[in-house]
Design brief:
The complex is a heterodimer of chains A (301) and B (326). Chain A is mostly helical and 301 residues long. Chain A has a single domain, classed as MetI-like (MetI-like fold, Orthogonal Bundle). Chain A is 70% helix and 0% strand. Chain A contains 11 helices and no strands. In chain A, helix 4 crosses helix 10 and helix 9 runs antiparallel to helix 11. Chain B folds into 2 domains: 216 residues, Rossmann fold; 88 residues, no CATH class. In chain B, helix 4 packs parallel to helix 5. The chains are: A mainly alpha (301), B alpha/beta (326). At the A-B interface, helix 1, helix 8, helix 9 and helix 11 of A face helix 4 of B.
């Protein structure tokens, strides 16, 4: 036995502890490390705040001229008001919610598509893989931002449209990474053993390869959320998203257009930037924290 | 009784087709432990793949057939065509490196339950699995562990438990003890022998270690350059080998109490790419004559139960007459 005693589960005295660990939510607690903890706390504040608080909003924050313009921070308007007469705090809350929902929608879409495509291409191989990878590589070479700028100029449709566009032009890279994982997995002995024990292709994909890549998928999902929020913000800042809807990018768009920096309403511009940075930090810490936690489960770290 | 009729296993490559197993005809009696030995590239692994029915492109069973001597649930005799459906039920496989044969991110118990068994009630199966691994000398907690938390010997025991759980008629073990130290190696081999005695099934064991073969097997198959050169009861194959290759192989191994210098077999096995005429061992054989180079020897029964493919079977004079294998 080469493993150190603290990770050796076979000692009889550790058995009851291990048993408790497997019951419900507490089984996930052992994954926690500091990085993941901080990341999750930040994310929890953002998610809970942006999903719950809008129900207590005194008015629709995107409605212009609800309040006086350019008010300073007071107890009534925590972050002051914008040059358009909106409450900055409530506008920000709605912006975080919309950006997060967009990010999650894109993240789910891209994760499902890229996992299905990547796993099947990598594991099945042959002509199927070559045809699929032709599409994947084509989509990878298409530069996303110019395409989005062109499409954004042409069509200003709803958010579902934006979500699907980001998914269509964003899934390929993840598919390629997952395929490369599946490629190495295909040659692993435990996949052979699964095959030798009579498991079919679908069973191997779902029961052997999926648990292996699921940790990566979670990290990939978080990174995709980041990527989607980022992309939308970029489009919004240059005015190509649907800027009437509050998002992290559209606040910055309006604040820049109304020269918030020079009119003294610095909070209008700084608040969304701070919120974006914090959100990204939370997502980043969660993603790397998960990485670390899963590595320790595999016995790497 | 497992019957191999002139089995040819070939690989299709860019340079053409090559026969890695070239016409092997054997009868493996039920309830024996058959050892397969030979140097790297002699076709051992290909033969195992053929017997297991794991025939994937570019490999193919280009001639011959295998009859397994047992039937499936509906009574149809099992041949090389339908063996795949019996994987891990009537035929199973113990892999070479148990280190990599378990999914590193799935708990051992879950991997057990993932096997497509006949019983749908997972809880009942789990109870049976628990009882079984305890019988095999593993603690129950093993099922809760991830593979990296187990030692090499425990992992190999887990693999053996998986391979024997459905009590298969035939178990193929491809160098099951290669990565283990000698103490654990002995435990694993004893476990395999014990299980074989209880289940009265057949084990085919591939190993480079002649000591393992001597201790474990009841019958031996020696392969050379894609051919079976000697086949018989382990005792007679070890004590009175008929083929010069077997004899030289035996002489090249150290024995306790014998401190004479050991000799390897000079030369290399022939490339399977070239046209092979006559006996494939002729270039390295001290007994080779013009007849050996022209006429290929058949695997025939020279003594009761002992087969050899040599024109001059039993005529090679060994250095040590009575080796004591340890």
């Amino acid at each position: 036995m080469t493993t150190e005693t603290q990770t050796t589960p076979v000692a009889a005295d550790t058995a009851p502890k291990r048993k408790r660990r497997d019951e419900g939510w507490s089984s996930l607690l052992w994954l926690l490390n500091r990085r993941l903890g901080i990341g999750l706390v930040i994310l929890l504040i953002f998610v809970a705040g942006s999903l719950v608080l809008p129900f207590f909003s005194p008015s629709d924050p995107s409605q212009q001229a609800t309040y006086m313009k350019n008010l300073h921070m007071t107890t009534k308007h925590w972050l002051g008001t914008t040059a358009l007469g909106q409450d900055t705090f409530w506008y920000l809350i709605f912006a975080v919610r919309n950006s997060l929902l967009l990010g999650i929608a894109v993240g789910i879409g891209i994760t499902i598509i890229s996992t299905a495509v990547g796993l099947s291409a990598g594991y099945i191989g042959g002509a199927f893989e070559r045809i699929v990878m032709l599409f994947v590589d084509t989509f990878i070479t298409i530069p996303l931002l110019p395409i989005l700028i062109i499409l954004g100029t042409l069509i200003r449709a709803n958010y579902a449209y934006l979500v699907s566009i980001i998914i269509i032009f964003g899934w390929a890279w993840n598919a390629r990474t997952i395929r490369s994982m599946a490629l190495t997995l295909r040659e692993r002995e435990f996949i052979n053993m699964a095959r030798f024990s009579g498991a079919g292709t679908f069973q191997i994909l779902t029961r052997e390869i999926f648990p292996y890549v699921s940790a990566y998928m979670l990290v990939g999902f978080i990174n995709t959320v980041l990527f989607a929020i980022n992309t939308e913000a970029t489009l919004a800042v240059i005015g190509l998203s649907k800027v009437e809807i509050p998002t992290l990018g559209s606040i910055i768009f309006w604040a820049l257009n109304y020269n918030a920096l020079f009119t003294g309403n610095v909070v209008w511009l700084v608040a969304p930037i701070v919120a974006t940075v914090l959100l990204f930090l939370g997502l980043f810490l969660t993603s790397t924290g998960f990485n670390e936690a899963f590595a320790s489960r595999r016995g790497v770290a | 009784m497992i019957r191999l009729n002139n089995v040819v296993g070939s690989y299709r490559t860019g340079r053409g087709s090559i026969n890695a197993v070239d016409g092997v005809t054997l009868e493996i009696p039920d309830g024996c432990i058959l050892g397969v030995a030979g140097e790297s590239g002699c076709g051992k692994s290909t033969l195992m793949k053929l017997i297991y029915g794991d025939v994937l492109s570019p490999m193919s069973l280009s001639a011959g057939s295998i009859e397994y001597g047992f039937t499936d649930d509906r009574g149809t005799p099992i041949t090389s065509d339908n063996i795949k459906r019996e994987w891990f039920r009537r035929i199973s496989y113990v892999p070479q490196s148990s280190m990599n044969s378990l999914n590193p991110v799935v708990r051992v118990g879950k991997q057990f339950l993932d096997f497509p068994g006949p019983d749908a009630d997972k809880r009942r199966v789990l109870e049976q699995v628990k009882a079984y691994i305890v019988k095999l000398g593993l603690p129950v907690e093993t099922l809760e562990a991830y593979p990296h938390q187990l030692s090499g010997g425990m992992r190999q025991r887990v693999m053996i438990a998986m391979a024997t759980f459905f009590q298969p008629e035939l178990i193929l073990a491809d160098e099951p003890t290669t990565a283990l130290d000698v103490v654990v190696q002995k435990d694993i081999l004893l476990l395999l022998m014990e299980l074989q005695e209880q289940m009265q099934n057949t084990i085919v064991l591939v190993s480079h270690d002649m000591g393992v073969h001597y201790q474990t097997t009841t019958r031996m198959l020696i392969m050379y350059a894609a051919k079976a050169v000697e086949y018989g009861d382990s005792e007679s194959v070890f004590s009175a080998p008929l083929h010069p290759y077997t004899a030289m192989l035996a002489d090249s191994l150290p024995t306790i109490g014998d401190d004479r210098a050991r000799h390897g077999i000079p030369g290399r096995p022939p490339s399977l790419w070239q046209e092979l005429k006559g006996c494939r061992f002729a270039d390295r054989c001290p007994l080779a004559t013009a007849r050996c180079r022209a006429e290929e020897p058949e695997l025939i029964e020279h003594k009761p139960g002992q087969f050899a493919a040599c024109h001059y079977a039993g005529q090679y004079k060994r250095e040590a007459e009575q080796p004591t294998w340890q």
